[in-house]
Amino acid sequence: MLKGISPLLDADLLHALRSMGHGDLIAIVDTNFPADTFARSTVLGRPLKIGCNTAAEAVQAILGVMPLDTFVDHAAFRMEVVGAPDEVPEVQREVQAEVNRAEGKDWALHPVERYAFYEKARSAYCIVQTGDRRFYGCFAFMMGVIPPEA
């Protein structure tokens, strides 16, 4: 155990996060997402599992140590509901609250069509799969930078 770091962040996930750089994507997906299939195309090449049952818990742990990119228009993404792109399911509202909390301000989750999200996940540094069984618990985040001390 490490002080100040969520126990959900195991050694493999911490290594992946530490290895990522500015502009790299991390996909956080629900239990129904074909994580193994898509992860074969990522930089890491295999899926990571996180020991929690909700996407919000995973996002809270990951964004507790990872900054979002402020140099792009969109650094946080959610998978759109098929046939209802403006619908925001509960799982996405929960994650939105965690993103806002981590960043200390309102931070838009940019909607991405399902197949476009699949391509985004394939191009990610890694895919992290939660135990969340709710549909559309799929998100991607672009890593930002930590500025030097003044």
Automatic annotation (TrEMBL):
GO terms for molecular function: D-ribose pyranase activity; fucose binding; L-fucose mutarotase activity. SUPFAM superfamilies: RbsD-like. It catalyses: alpha-L-fucose = beta-L-fucose; beta-D-ribopyranose = beta-D-ribofuranose. InterPro entries: RbsD-like_sf (IPR023750), RbsD/FucU_mutarotase (IPR050443), RbsD_FucU (IPR007721). It is an enzyme of class 5 (isomerase). Keywords: Isomerase. It comes from the Bacteria. One of its GO terms (biological process) is fucose metabolic process. Its EC number is 5.1.3.29. It holds the Pfam family RbsD_FucU. PANTHER family: FUCOSE MUTAROTASE. This is L-fucose mutarotase. It comes from Gellertiella hungarica. The lineage of its organism: Bacteria, Pseudomonadati, Pseudomonadota, Alphaproteobacteria, Hyphomicrobiales.
